[in-house]
Amino acid sequence: MQSINWPEIRERLLRMTPPEDHTWGDPEAPLTSAELDELQHQIGVELPTDYQRFLRHVGRGGPGPFFGILPVRKVEGRWVWCGDRYQYSPVHLAEPFPLRVSDWRVQADLETEYPDWFSFARQANYEDAVQAWHDRELDVVFDPRRTYGAIPICDEGCGLREWLVVTGPERGHIWLDHRVDGRGLTPAWLPHHRRVTFGQWYLDWLETCEAAQR
């Protein structure tokens, strides 16, 4: 596996100019060793090594794919990952992430059960059936157990998200969360990499940005 000089990564970020379609500031201050220990003690798991090194040497959040790396901050005495309009307080991180392959078929199968308007004699009955279907969709597709053992690492926008798995066979890998548009949860990949670690994922983004600015 490629060795990454994380302190150098921070210097490379500071030299970059944000693209016109993105606005980001400098990386946030890195976590101290004591803060990282406290964070891991609170969440009850040891974070993947490359993400630990990012937090210690690059920043607790900052520039990254799409809208950047979600910062982890201490809020009212507890460590949380902070999105644009939400805070994620991790639970069940010690439980293994349940997936090994893409689960897009969960949504595909559910789509086949969408109520057929022509099967209802009354509009009100059809509307009730549609509401019941949407309620079930929320219960099945967005069941929080589907992301046990993972933390949100990046928001793509419009409800799309990326997760870093911290527990289970997929530990250390990035997974794409495209459930809002029917594509389910799928492992991120790169050419020659069927699975992508946090370090590979981040370095690929950084090198792509640097190449665009030469």
Automatic annotation (TrEMBL):
Q: Which organism is it from?
A: Plantactinospora sonchi
Coiled-coil region list: none
Entries under InterPro entries matching the protein: Knr4/Smi1-like_dom, Knr4/Smi1-like_sf
Query: In which domain of life is the source organism classified?
Result: Bacteria
Q: Which SUPFAM superfamilies match?
A: SMI1/KNR4-like
User: Tell me, what's a Pfam family for it?
Assistant: SMI1_KNR4
From the Swiss-Prot or TrEMBL record, give the protein name. Answer: SMI1/KNR4 family protein
Domain Knr4/Smi1-like residues, every copy: 30-208
